[in-house]
Write a structure and sequence with these properties.
The protein is α+β, with helices and mostly antiparallel strands. Helices cover 29% and strands 20% of the residues. The protein contains six helices and five strands; from the N terminus they run ββααβαααβαβ. It has a three-stranded antiparallel β-sheet. Strands 1-2 form a two-stranded antiparallel ribbon. The longest helix is centred in the middle third of the chain and has 10 residues.
């Protein structure tokens, strides 16, 4: 499974699976969106799956909701960055990286973080501007 990251906190199980540049793989796993490879961080959350939904399939939504409630959004803002959840991922690509087989563990959620970039295609208007006469 890789070697444990030696300077990570004791209660945080981080493993170095492979070193190198992964922008291309991140873009592919993130449904070929550049944001997954251009930022400071691109993360895939892997979580227990089949044993959770086997007897209670309704928990499927809870797994995704819990992954989306991570504090990375707040951490990004605290460091002058922005974060976004990415609603699409190619989970088979993500599963290949750590060598996951079967459905006990599944790719649940993807997240990208980086410096904010203004998108000229979007416009911000005051609320209810269309109601003013």
């Amino acid at each position: 499974m890789g070697e444990r990251v030696s300077d990570s906190p004791e209660n945080l199980l981080l493993f170095l699976l492979e070193s190198g540049g992964f922008a291309g793989r991140a873009v592919l796993a993130g449904c070929e969106r550049e944001i997954a490879g251009d930022g400071a961080l691109s993360a895939a959350m892997i979580g227990r799956f089949s044993d959770i939904i086997e007897d209670e399939p309704w928990r499927y939504r809870l797994i995704h909701r819990e992954a989306g409630m991570i504090v990375l959004y707040l951490e990004a803002e605290a460091h002058g960055l922005r974060g976004t959840g990415m609603g699409c991922c190619f989970d088979d690509v993500t599963h290949e990286i750590p060598g996951l087989k079967g459905d006990k563990w599944q790719d649940i959620y993807h997240f990208a973080m980086g410096k904010p970039v203004e998108d000229k295609r979007l416009a911000t208007k005051p609320p209810y501007h269309h109601l003013k006469k």
